[in-house]
């Protein structure tokens, strides 16, 4: 005979169970996609957002627009640095074969799957960079500082100014307009970037050159 104490074991509601099953199914499908031949390791979402690292990927349309913009700005044979902007890096890699080179500076070591183009980067140590990353060696730097704070922007700005020959494309909150001008001499663009998930803060792009984002 079953012990009546079994009744005391907490049971998940049918709604919660269904939600859990759906979650696990989605996980399995994602893993299945990754192992199938058609999986593109550079597609947005191939590395999932980690909100604890303040990660929010751009929408596909925004990532494409920004990638196309930096390719044009870099020029033929140009070098592009993506600082804390992995979804733009991924879009650039989808254009493989175009005449440019790109690297990704990122704190999240999951992006080390991209090999030699990955450079570990912590904005708290803005100039702690590999020796082979020479000053002013990139035709354009696109950066998306992880936090909406002047401290984060100021430190990321040190990295940007070290890397770029001149051109800067900054993506950050609209509330950072004054600080962006102060630390990087950039002006707000008309283009409104979108994310795959809606953010609470209005987001904008800033440049210091004549861009296609206006």
UniProtKB/TrEMBL annotation:
One of the protein's GO biological processes: methylation
Superkingdom of the source?
Eukaryota
InterPro entries per UniProt: DNA_methylase_N6_adenine_CS, Efm5/EEF1AKMT1, Mlase_EEF1AKMT1/ZCCHC4, SAM-dependent_MTases_sf
Asked if the keyword Cell membrane belongs to this entry, the reply reads no
Q: Which UniProt keywords apply?
A: Cytoplasm, Methyltransferase, Transferase
Q: What is its main location?
A: cytoplasm
- Which cellular components does GO assign to this protein? cytoplasm
The subcellular location is: Cytoplasm
Q: Which reaction does it catalyse?
A: L-lysyl-[protein] + 3 S-adenosyl-L-methionine = N(6),N(6),N(6)-trimethyl-L-lysyl-[protein] + 3 S-adenosyl-L-homocysteine + 3 H(+)
List, in alphabetical order, the Gene Ontology terms for molecular function in this entry. nucleic acid binding; protein-lysine N-methyltransferase activity
**Name this protein carries in UniProt:** EEF1A lysine methyltransferase 1
Q: Provide the organism lineage as a comma list.
A: Eukaryota, Metazoa, Chordata, Craniata, Vertebrata
